[in-house]
Write a structure and sequence with these properties.
With 381 residues, the chain is mainly α. The chain contains twelve helices and no strands. It folds into two domains: 140 residues, no CATH class; 164 residues, no CATH class. 87% of the residues lie in helices and 0% in strands. Helix 7 runs antiparallel to helix 8 and helix 7 runs antiparallel to helix 11. The termini are far apart.
Length: 381
Amino acid sequence: MGFNSDFSITKKSVIAYTFFVILIIRLVIVDNALATLGVVIKSIIWALVLIYLMSPVVSKLTKKFKLNRRVSVLLSFLLLFVIITMLILVVTPAIVHSTELFIQSIPKMNEAINTFFSELNLQDYSISVEFLSEFLDYFNTALSQIARGFLSFLESAILSAGAVINSIFGFILALLVSWYGLTEYPSMENDFYESIKVILPKRAAKETIRILMIVDEQIKKFIVGKGITCIFVGVLSFIAMLLFNYFTDYSIPFVSLIALIIGITNIIPYVGPIIGAVPSLLFALIGGFPEFLAVFIIIFIIQQLESIYLTPKVLGSVVGISPFWTIVFLTMGGALGGLFGLLLSVPIGATLLILWHEYEAYKKEKNPDFFNDSINNEGDN
């Protein structure tokens, strides 16, 4: 039995086989093989998400500037690295420094709270001073433990050699998969749709591909719309805190960091503002109770504005559905699917509306007299 003489080895094949051998060696030799496999799976998932999110950017660069697709992928990665580097250089030291200052300021906060309650003359309200003192001691201890635990987590995450090695391995794997995925995305997308044609009957395959294309378009529009609202909320929070610091004798600390946290966490509907408010309010407490109250009011007002007006308006205009249906889909998605339901509810709901309107148009075209008679009868009544 002989081998096929037409077999040819390409550069991609060599890279793929080399990486496969390294992976097998790690799985066989390294003791913690399951952990390594978990890193690989998570890296591939992150790579697929990265490919999906970056593919529109690569396509835009390729078409608008008439670049080679590999050059567009390279420029997209450079832009991503610049953004990540800026975030690491700005955010990580700020979080660690803010946490350390928060720990140092806990005794001062406790003293301020004691003074505040002592001025209320709690004896007139039949409130035990001893009980309040015990409660404040417990509160002080709990805050210290939370802050020190958070700082310890950051330090262990940064200094842990195993975590660093696994993270580097996973990061390299994700980048490698993303690079080839983005470079070959058009052919991969075409192969994906071709596989659907092979698996499903002709009519079912055609409808499935059409629905998937609509969902893909709606998800990308949703990401753009949600990105706009996040930027708006972050910038507006930043301006509001700066104005508070300028026009009052008080000073909210870490304005940039708090605004960044509020803006980023806002990407999660409903739950995001709460997640972002907790660390923001803790950082504001470093400045004092008036600063804490000011940040609380700023977050509350901006989130009300965002949830009642901005999100329905922006997502409605970008995705193409009314504010009413936007709120309905967000509410139903959160109730049925939790976090992922909130994130996917608007694009999936928009797809269902598109399909429903197409079905309505089909029914009207098939039976125009019935619909015209119904409208006329309703008008007569």
